Amino acid sequence: MSAESGQARPAPTLEMVAALAGVSRATVSRVVNGSPSVDPSMADSVEKAVRALNYVPNRAARTLASRRTYTVTLLVPESTSKVFADPFFASVVEGIARYLNTTEYMLNMVTSSESNPEKTRRYLLGGNVDGVLVVSHHTGDHSWERLNGQLPVVFAGRPLVDAGQSYFVEVDNEEGAAAATARLTGAGRRSIATIAGPQDMLAGVDRLAGWRAEVRRAGLDDALVETGDFTVASGAAAMRRLLDRGRNIDAVFAANDQMASGAYSVLQERGLRIPEDVAVVGFDDDYYATSLSPALTTIHHPITALGGKMAEVLVDLIEGRPTERVNRLPTSLVVRDSA
Amino acid sequence: MSAESGQARPAPTLEMVAALAGVSRATVSRVVNGSPSVDPSMADSVEKAVRALNYVPNRAARTLASRRTYTVTLLVPESTSKVFADPFFASVVEGIARYLNTTEYMLNMVTSSESNPEKTRRYLLGGNVDGVLVVSHHTGDHSWERLNGQLPVVFAGRPLVDAGQSYFVEVDNEEGAAAATARLTGAGRRSIATIAGPQDMLAGVDRLAGWRAEVRRAGLDDALVETGDFTVASGAAAMRRLLDRGRNIDAVFAANDQMASGAYSVLQERGLRIPEDVAVVGFDDDYYATSLSPALTTIHHPITALGGKMAEVLVDLIEGRPTERVNRLPTSLVVRDSA
DNA sequence: TTGTAGGCGTTATCAT
DNA sequence: ATGATAACGCCTACAA
C-alpha cells in the first residue's frame, strides 16, 4: 500500500452511531456516558452500533460542550534538564500514571520554564486542564498554590509553612525515622548516632526530629548528630566526624541510604563490623540498600504510592468529592542484615 | 445553579476580545493565528485587547474547529511498572519534552496496557492526537507501525526488519563500535577482544558488527568474542571466558559500560593493569563510565538527542514538511583513562 | 424514557 | 482586508 502522509478516513461521530442504531444523538450520548435512565434494549442496540463503527467520543467536542477537559497536568517547575533522570521523580510519575490509568483522566506534562512562568500560568488557567499536580524538588516550594481557588492543585510534600490551604501528600518522615531508631533502641543499642540530612530540607529536618524523639524516649543521649547533604561522600565524612569524637558508638541512623553507604565505607575501613560493632539503619530503601554488603536495614519510602495518592486526591477534588487536605503516607521498616 | 466549589471566573473568549477591540471574531482569530493579511493597526488594537483580557485560545474549541489537536502522544508499550525508573527512557523523554517545549505541541503519555491495546488504538485513532512517539525496549518492536498512514508515528530505534515504511531515529551503534575499536587499533593493540551484547537485540548485533569491521580492517583476528547480556555480572563472566582461552589479550571493547565494569573486576582480580596490560573501551557513557577506576574511555550515546530528534521528525511529519524517514545519530568517543 | 434544540469557542468559507 | 455565518462533535436542559 502507498503510505499517504495525509490523514485517513474521518472518525465516526455520535451522529453516525445514532443513525445506525436508529435513535437520537441524545440517547447515544446517554448510553456512552452511562446515564442511568436508558432502556436496556435501546442501550443494547446503541452499544452494538458503537462497536460496529468502532466509535470513540471526540475529546475536543466533549470538552467544549461539557467544559470538562478530563486532563490533569503534571507541572515540573525545575529546568527540564535533570528531572527525568531523577529516580524519585520517575517513581512519583509512575504512581500518578498508574492511578490515572484507572480513571478517564489523561496526564499531560508541562515543565514550567522559569524564563516564562506566565505562559504556563495562562495555559493552566485557560480552561485546558481540570487540575494540576506539582512535583518539585525544592521541597516546600508551593509557589503554584496561587492557582488554588482557580484550579485544584495537589503538591508532593508539604509547604515550608503550611498556610492551611494547599492540598498535599507527603511521606511521614518523622515517624519513619523514629521507627528506624526504635529498631536500634529495641536491640539494646545505647549509643545511637545519626547522620542527618540538610536542615533546609523538610526531609532532613523531619528525619532528624524522628531520631531525636525516639532517642530521648529511650533515655539516651541525643548529641551524636552530624549532618550531610544526602550524598554518599557526605555520609562518609559525617561518619568520620562521628567516630573521631572518640565516643563509643554502637549504632547509626542515616537519614538516607546513600549516606548510609558512605558510613559503611568508613566503618569498614576502620575495621568496625556491621552490625556486630555498629548497627546501621538507613532511609528510602533505594538501590543502595540492597547492593550494600551487608544488606541495609532501612525504611521503605513509598514514592510510587505518593504519586498515586496525589492523583487520587486531585481527581477527588475535581469531581467534588470530600477529601483530606493533607495526606501523610506511612513508611515501613525493612529488616535486612545491618541492624 | 449553585456555585461550583473552587472554580472561578470563566476564561475570556475570542468574542470578548473582538468586542473590546471593536472588530469581528474572524479578525481576532486571524491576529491570534498570525495570519499575514491583517491591517497592522487593527492587529495592534487586537493585541492590546488580548493582553488586557489576558486571553488564551480555548484548546478544545480550536481543536474542534481546526481538526488539529496540537498534541502528540508518547506511547509506552511496556507495563507501566518499570519504565520510568529506566534511565534510558528518562533521557529520551527529556529530549522529547525539551524539543516540544519550543513548539506549540503538548506532550501526553499513554502506557498501552498490553491487556487492552485496542483501547489505546482507538484513543489514538479517535482524533485526539496529531502524532505518536513510540519508545519501546523491545528494540525493534514496531507493532504500532500499523498506525502509519492513519497517523504519523516515529519510533526510537529501527525495526528488526525495515519494511521501508516506518519513520525512526536511531543511534549509529555500528559506527560507534568501530570508533571505539579504532581507538584500540590506533594505539597499536594487536589482540583485541570484545564482550558483545545479546545477539537478539539490535544494539548487540550492531556493536558487534562495528567491532568486527574495524578489527578486520586492521588485519587482526576477529575470533575473540564472548557474549553477555548487558549486565555487570555477564560482563565479568565473559571477560573470564576470554582470559581463560589462554590467548594474550591486550584490549577489550565491551558493548556497554556495565559489562565493561564487570570486565574491570575480573581484570583487576587477575592482576592485569588497565590500560597498561589491557586497554578497555565501553559504550554508552553512562554512570558506570565515570565511577570506574580508572575512568572508562567510552562511546557517548546521545540519548537525549535521540528523543529530541524523534519529536522533531514527528512535528515535521505532522506539518507536512519533508523529512528523512530514517535518522541515524552520530556517537562520539570520550577518551578517559582506560584506553 | 426519549427526542429536540441550543450552545460550547474557534476556524473556515464566502461574500463584501 | 474584513465580516457574516456556517460548521466542528458533543452535552444538556427542556419538552414530549
Instruction: Tell me the number of strands of chain A.
Output: 12
Named at the architecture level, the CATH assignment of the largest domain in chain A is 3-Layer(aba) Sandwich
User: What is the CATH homology-level superfamily of the largest domain in chain A?
Assistant: Response regulator
- CATH class of the largest domain in chain A equals Alpha Beta
Quote the average pLDDT of chain A: 88
CA radius of gyration of chain A:
26 Å
Domains of chain A (count):
3
> In what order do the strands lie side by side in the largest sheet of chain A?
2-1-3-4-5-11
Order of helices and strands of chain A: HHHHEHHEHEEEHEHEHEHEHEHEE
Counted by DSSP, the helix tally of chain A is 13
Helix content range of chain A: 40-55%
Largest interface: A-B, 52 and 52 residues
SS class of chain A: alpha/beta
- Shape category of chain A: elongated
Strand content of chain A: 5-15%
Protein name (chains A, B): LacI family transcriptional regulator
Keywords (chains A, B): DNA-binding, Transcription, Transcription regulation
InterPro entries (chains A, B): HTH_LacI, LacI/GalR-like_sensor, Lambda_DNA-bd_dom_sf, Peripla_BP_I
Domain HTH lacI-type (chains A, B): 12-66
